[in-house]
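Researcher: Sequence recovery benchmark, item below. Answer with residues only.
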């Protein structure tokens, strides 16, 4: 179910705020974008990047920031659906990092679930991934 325009704009603003807080390395603002539930979950692109709760998500951001000079995720126009106080979003994105003066960018994908609480849309579940290295039209990555 597509979100009506007001909800679409509110959820997109929440996504943009989350991205901006990560880019500016503003931990307080970043954590304010996420529901303070013990079972909030975020999957990153690394095999060990399953973070549960605000402490887990904070530790991931701290790790990311300690290993980079600059880092960000930049979303393309998302698809957003909603029902009641729950919304879900999907978007292609770009991960960009700077390490030792070298900038690298990777294509990515994002899906997330948001819940409206106290007038704000908060992340309750998020998943980031990198597309597998496979040829167009092929369902399985090329191993050779």
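Model:
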């Amino acid at each position: 179910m597509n979100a009506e325009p007001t909800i679409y704009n509110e959820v997109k603003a929440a996504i943009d705020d989350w991205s901006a807080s990560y880019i500016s390395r503003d931990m307080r603002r970043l954590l304010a974008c996420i529901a303070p539930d013990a079972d909030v979950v975020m999957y990153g692109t690394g095999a060990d990047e399953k973070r549960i709760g605000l402490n887990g998500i904070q530790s991931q951001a701290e790790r990311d920031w300690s290993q980079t000079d600059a880092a960000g995720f930049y979303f393309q126009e998302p698809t957003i659906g909603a029902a009641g106080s729950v919304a879900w979003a999907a978007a292609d994105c770009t991960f960009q990092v700077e390490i030792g003066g070298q900038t690298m960018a990777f294509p990515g994908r994002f899906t997330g679930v948001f819940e409206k609480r106290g007038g704000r849309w908060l992340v309750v579940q998020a998943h980031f991934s990198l597309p597998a290295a496979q040829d167009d039209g092929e369902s399985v990555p090329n191993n050779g």
